[in-house]
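Allow me, if you will, to draw on your knowledge of protein folds for a short while. I have a record of one protein: its chain in single-letter code and its fold written as discrete structure tokens. I remain grateful for any guidance, and I place the record below:
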Amino acid sequence: MINKNDKIGKILLQLQWLVQNRNVSMETFCTEFDLTRDEAIKNLSLLTYVGPGKYGGELVDIQYGDDEIRVIDSQGFDRPLRLNNFEVILLLLGLKQLIEASDDAKDLKAVEQRLLSLITEEDSNNDRDLHIANNRKFIEEAIKRGQKVNFDYTNANLSSSKDRVVSPLRFYTEQNIDYLDAFTNEEKYTKSFRLERIQNIRLLDIPISMEKVKTKQSIKKRIKITTKAWNYIRIFDLGVNYEIKKDHMILDLDYYDEDFILDTILRLGPDVEIHSSNEIKTHLLSLLKKRIALVK
């Protein structure tokens, strides 16, 4: 028997899929989510009439008939929502009421915690953007001069490394996150660093010796991760792109930040399948062993 939370989770996944596929047949929708036609119509009706008005379409306008489903206007559902203080309070009160009435409110509590964290995150976004801009400006000057830099760095698992000496090579952006590609003296190959995690950066009066830079770049490789669709609740705050196919979630990622990839896998739990080269799997296992060794 499906409990209320499972049903809500499945309907939310259906809504996300519909927003991405705005014009589909009823048959395709039913096949994608293993629904009968009556079940599909019931869910579409519920989605259409979620909102304050009595005519539907305030949050997402879905038009459907016997053969076709169309998302006419997503009402901004596919973009981040901006809520005022009163709307946030109402949303939190509604979640609290659902949690208290539910027999298994695990997922709802996760949503509540994420909402609370978003309220405090927005105030810090401006400071983070300024920090990234300052780091970029400083490193651009180092690249222009052909000099090395020294900085402290926080990994995805929040462990810090001090006084990292690197030869900066280039900047790039993946999934709206800014990275520095640099040659590391310690590991003797190129590595990616998230600009927002770089602290206390200093310019060193040491020239970059480009002929010593090796071409091995693990960031160019790919990794594919599959797991149960409901696991999206564990990673939706990471900003990772994923695809939902029936009851499975698929992440197809560049292997550019190995600590972030490992952190994502650990969040998803043991019910994951990893499709990658043996080199990447060996590297991830090595990183995991290093983390375990740090536990005292």
The radius of gyration is 23 Å.
